[in-house]
Amino acid sequence: MKKESCGKDIKELSEDENSALRINIGKPADMKNDDGFNKYLEKKRRKLSEDEYIDGIMSGDRVILGRALSLIESKRHDDNTLSKKIVNDCLSKSGNSIRIGITGVPGAGKSTFIEAFGLYLLSLGKKVAVMAVDPSSTISGGSLMGDKTRMERLSSEKNVFIRPSATSGFLGGVNRATREAIILTEAAGYDVILIETVGVGQSEVLVHSMVDFFLLLQISGAGDELQGIKKGIMEMADGIAVTKADGDNVLKAEICKKELQNALHYSINYDEDWSVPVIIVSSLENKSVDEVYSIISKHSEIMKSSGRFYSKRKSQVAEWMKSTILQTLESEFYNTAAIKAVFEKYEQNVLDGIVSPVTAVEELINIFKS
Questions:
Q1: pLDDT averaged over consecutive 10-residue blocks of the chain (370 residues)?
Q2: Which of 242, 275, 345, 355 could be cross-linked to 359 through a Cys-Cys bond (beta carbons 3.0 to 4.6 Å apart)?
Q3: Residue 132 forms beta bridges with which residues?
């Protein structure tokens, strides 16, 4: 059977009023950029002065705050010099928030909980900053996941500032600029600072030395509930929340809660003013999220009334200074010309068994000091 010709070429079809291929020319678009967007681009590109950074931070400008935190994380000498001035300028305006560390084994739902918790805090009129430490590859240095993609609802809110921060190989996976970032976000007017740890070891110890309340998230239904929790982390926790207590998992969560309470009962209580509470939480169903904040608020009231809240913060500042000394000395040691000239030789001698690591270090220190 012979096929019929359509009888019209493409040009004719596009001119036909009833054709799906018809092209409407439309009204020429106004290509001028919006003034607000132009100002945004200017802030992103132009080099800012110290005063402009301070004014922007104090006024709660999230773009300038983000740029200031990038300065802190920069390895450039001129950026470091400017960032130190900015941190010092912000010190007098900091300290007015509640700092909360959030940790848990991988898969405990830290990011999901933080989003639900953050949205609840917003409903109370709080401004929330999230320091979300993003695991980075030790091989490529690349981050595994951007936290803004895991907290879509929270990151879209105007009174929220989320700072995904790659671990960059630093101790325990916590970026070395986290302490300074806390100061800047507090100066920008954020009431609650949430610091999420990687949840894989030493990061918990470091974050514990930065926060007022340390919350441990534990998942139920994963075999032995206590096997994945290090005793040290249990002792650091000010509160424990069993997550994902929804659907068929509610009963497992209740059992996990009781096991954790029994474990705490037989452990040493280092705080006579506070007994670590254990609750079950569903971030998806928004169940008991408000109770977490009630526990944190009660803990803060007790610590402030006894004076321990502020003494703890002073101890944390002292710890910050000591850790900075170690980091600075380490950096100066490896970057000294005399050490660079002989380090590989000493390292090879140690690997070849010619000298012990202790002897090599002693000789290298003497070279560094001379």
A1: 50 54 54 58 76 96 94 86 95 95 86 94 96 54 48 89 69 65 96 84 79 92 51 83 91 91 79 91 93 97 95 93 88 94 97 97 96
A2: 355
A3: 164, 196
Any long-range contacts for 338-342 (C-beta under 8 Å, 24+ apart)?
338/367, 338/368, 338/370, 339/364, 339/367, 339/368, 342/367
What is the CATH architecture assignment of 42-90? Up-down Bundle (1.20)
Instruction: Let me know: does 112 contact 241? Beta carbons within 8 Å.
Output: no
Angle at 84 between CA 78 and CA 90, to 5 degrees: 140
Quick count: other Cβ atoms within 10 Å of Cβ 285? 14
pLDDT at 35: 63
Distance separating alpha carbons of residues 187 and 65, to the nearest angstrom? 10
**pLDDT tens sequence across 293-343:** 999 999 999 999 999 999 999 999 998 899 889 888 998 999 999 999 999
Annotated domain spans of the chain: 42-90, 94-305, 318-369
- For 21, half-sphere exposure in the C-beta direction (CA atoms, 13 angstrom radius) is 9
CATH of domain 94-305: 3.40.50.300
If you write DSSP's letter for every residue of 283-324 in order, what string do you get?
TTTTBSHHHHHHHHHHHHHHHHHHTHHHHHHHHHHHHHHHHH
Tokens 């439309």 map to which residue?
26
Q: Give per-residue pLDDT as tens, 220-271.
A: 765 444 444 556 777 889 999 999 999 888 999 999 999 888 888 877 777 8
Alpha-carbon distances of 183 from 65, 119, 203, 320, rounded to whole Å: 11, 22, 19, 13
Q: Which of 276, 167, 293 shows the shortest CA–CA distance to 218?
A: 276
Number of H helices, E strands in the chain: 16, 7
